[in-house]
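Lab notes, practical 5.
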Amino acid sequence: MKKIIFTLFSVFVLSVLVSCASASVESQDSSKLESVVVSEADALAWNKQSHSSAEKESSNLKIKSKGKLGTFNIYIRDRDDRLLPVFSTQEEFTTTSFYLQAGRKVFKLSGGTGITTATRETVDGIQIVYIIPKIAQVLVDFKILSSDEKRDGDIVKVSSYVKNLKGRNDTFALKLLLDTAIGEKRRTHFYDSESIPIKTETLYRSVKNYPWVLTGNDTSSFQILYSGADTTEPEFVAVGAYETLNTMNWEPAIVSNRSFDTVSSYNNSALEISWKPEVLEKDAANVSTLYFAVASFPDTINGKSYIENYVAPVEEKVPEAPKAEIISAGDVPFEEVIAEDSNVETETVIPVFTGNSSQRLDSSTEYIQRILDRIAELETGDKDLNQDELLLLNEELDEILMRLRDN
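Output from the prediction step:
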């Protein structure tokens, strides 16, 4: 009889553990996809509300998007208060675009091609969404930031979320083609992070030593930063003639030292950033991040400094009750610890488990439930930070099961 009870209890514990683990994964995915889940109906509502376009600006720049096409442009405000487009304005900005590779198929993310596109303003920027039915959803979030307290909005953080809609695991990759216009009237269109002019087609396989590219004219500068801080390091970065980069082939045919001139155009250069392919599970998503920085004379561009001094945002933590007593599992099995400070709202503090399971076995069911609840709580947080306590909790469960079996 004892053996049957133990077996049933073991199955119960294992089922609860599996349930907790599943809930943990689900909660992590939900948090990660919070800003990605946009239905086609929502997309249509975005366009209706925004009249199919969105704008956000600061003292230094302006972002503009067109929802029905899924296109965008960045403008730099110069010292004469003129707005200078960074990217080509031809064909309603369509020469600057994202590309998505889903499995073996490549899509240019733009409206009018069976892809639903929409845009909207946010508190500190704009968003564009691209929905390829039953394949993928891409949401691009442009957020205006300031490089320091003295500047108003001279940085744009671009976070691109790709969500798998295929119903099965598959490989996805994203790239961004920037048809730059602001530097094309100068002899040198681009400079790398070593201040070396980029005058011919160049392919960077490793970007650690070349984390950004700079372009601009006589009054304004534009910096593209794709390595360092919380950026997503790309698989490659290519600089070349626009016609060379504007291809459905995933990697362009770059020829070293070839000029930016082609048969059909003169001095028409562009830059392409391609992120590494990643296998995404059903309904899972990933994010690729880069930064833009702007400046106009007499200001100097501040993107490099911003990345080098980047401090990750600190998540708000619930204040801990002061001077709360820590009760180990082996001392008082089920007592709650209450803060004694009458000026602070009382709250229950979860005991720190130590692996000492000498408590009464007749209370084991409730005690085990406490451990399982604690495991579930830790699993939803940072697993690396909570690893030690998770190991102790699992050891505690093992020991209790052994004691039950022995009895």
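Observations recorded by the TA: The longest strand covers residues 285-296. Residues 177 and 246 are 7 Å apart (CA to CA).
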